[in-house]
Amino acid sequence: MRPESSPATPHTPAKRDERRAFIALAVFLAPALAVAIVGGLGFIIWMSQLIYGPPAG
C-alpha cells in the first residue's frame, strides 16, 4: 500500500497549482481588474459631465 502524504511533506502538484494561480492573479487578473474599474469610473464621470455639465466651482 502507498502511505498517505502527511501535511508536513509538500505536495508538488498542489504547490505548482498554487504558484500558477498566484501568477495568474498577480500578473494578469489584478491589473486587468484595476484598469477596468478605473476606466469604468472615468467613463461614468465623463458621461455624467456630458449630461449634467462640468463641476461647478
What does this structure look like?
This is Nitrate reductase. The chain is an all-alpha fold and 57 residues long. It has one helix at residues 12-52. The longest helix is centred in the middle third of the chain and has 41 residues, at 12-52. The model has no long low-confidence stretch (mean pLDDT 88).
Low-confidence stretches: none
Structural class: mainly alpha
* Alpha-carbon Rg, integer: 23 Å
> Based on DSSP secondary structure assignment, what is the total number of beta strands?
0
Question: What is the number of helical segments per DSSP (H or I, 4+ residues)?
Answer: 1
User: Which sequence of SSEs, written as H and E, runs from N to C?
Assistant: H
Residue fraction in strands? under 5%
User: What's the helical proportion of residues?
Assistant: over 70%
Shape summary: rod-shaped
Q: Calculate the terminal CA-CA distance, rounded to whole Å.
A: 78 Å
Largest sheet: none
The pLDDT mean sits at 88
Organism: Ruegeria sp. PrR005
Keywords: Membrane, Transmembrane, Transmembrane helix
Transmembrane segments: 21-47
Protein name: Nitrate reductase
